[in-house]
Input
Amino acid sequence: MPDDKPSDLESRVKAKAAELGFAACGIARADAAPLAGERLHQWLAEGRHGDMIWMEERRAQRASPAGLWPAVRSVIALGMSYAPKDDPLRLAEQGEVGRISVYAQGADYHDVIKRQLKALGRWLASDAVGVEYPFDLKVFVDTAPVMEKPLAEAAGLGWQGKHTNLVSRTEGSWLFLGAIYTTLELKGDAAGRDLCGSCDACQRACPTDAFPAPYRLDARRCISYLTIEHAGVIPHEFRAGIGNRIYGCDDCLAVCPWNKFAAAANANLAFAPRAELVAPEIADLIALDDAGFRQVFAGSPIKRIGRDKMVRNALIAAGNSNDATLSEGVAALLGDPAPVVRGTAVWALSRLDAVRFAAEKADRRGGENDDGVRAEWDRANLS
Output
């Protein structure tokens, strides 16, 4: 009886990756994306990375696989689907609830993908695979200076779309990416071909105009950056555009027409949304203390932003809600220990209840010792 298992190592790697739940797997030579480093250096020079100083600090390691690990010869690029069953934009007009990016509604993808990457690595290193010379490998998922998207494109998983994220012909924009660097000499796949054409749906969908040009992102204007990475006060010019997004933003991904080929059935079950993270009530979010935050977001990637950022984001959503019933909860945060929370509460209250705002300003403005919060009191009624 003939053996129907693939014989070459590259095909066996891809078959094993599929067995482990990866929707896409491709291989690139370590030097297959030479222009990615140049684009990174230009992006950093323009300051478009905002407060993400680690991008600057480890630019040499990020610019190419060899910069991080000189011995690397091949990159195994992998994608795991998190395609949603429901339209992520359906909650846009429901101001009483917060919108959490699809990728963060289920289990922490770092944990899920790293576990499967390690399983693939163990299999590759096992005697059963039959590699006849010593080799080494390292696994990465979003926590090391690795340019997953250009490497995934070089490995044939798809192409970097005009929204700068990877687009797959079969999985749309809904792929978590991981990579295995190895000293194995593997045959590379053909690179992905750009199929965006004249479509500019993602560019038009951005609420804060974060794309200065197609294929270029200014993180400083991106809602995902502002609500997750940015630690300080969110600039006034972006607050209305944030709407009810409290963690990340899916708009540019959700409108991509290639998503029509992405089946929610392909998504890893670990990423199935937790009911309490699909449409959390703004009133509940602004009432969170540290212990409550940790309890609600345990096991979620959201836990890493901390309580103060989450409450800041929820206060912006409250201010955009036109729901005056939230004013009491907002006012309760005017004395919060965190200046970023106090200041954002000032802004939110000014938009929800002008009478209450005036009374609170008369009572609190004079005793406020933070310059930023005082500035919010002084300009809030002008916003």
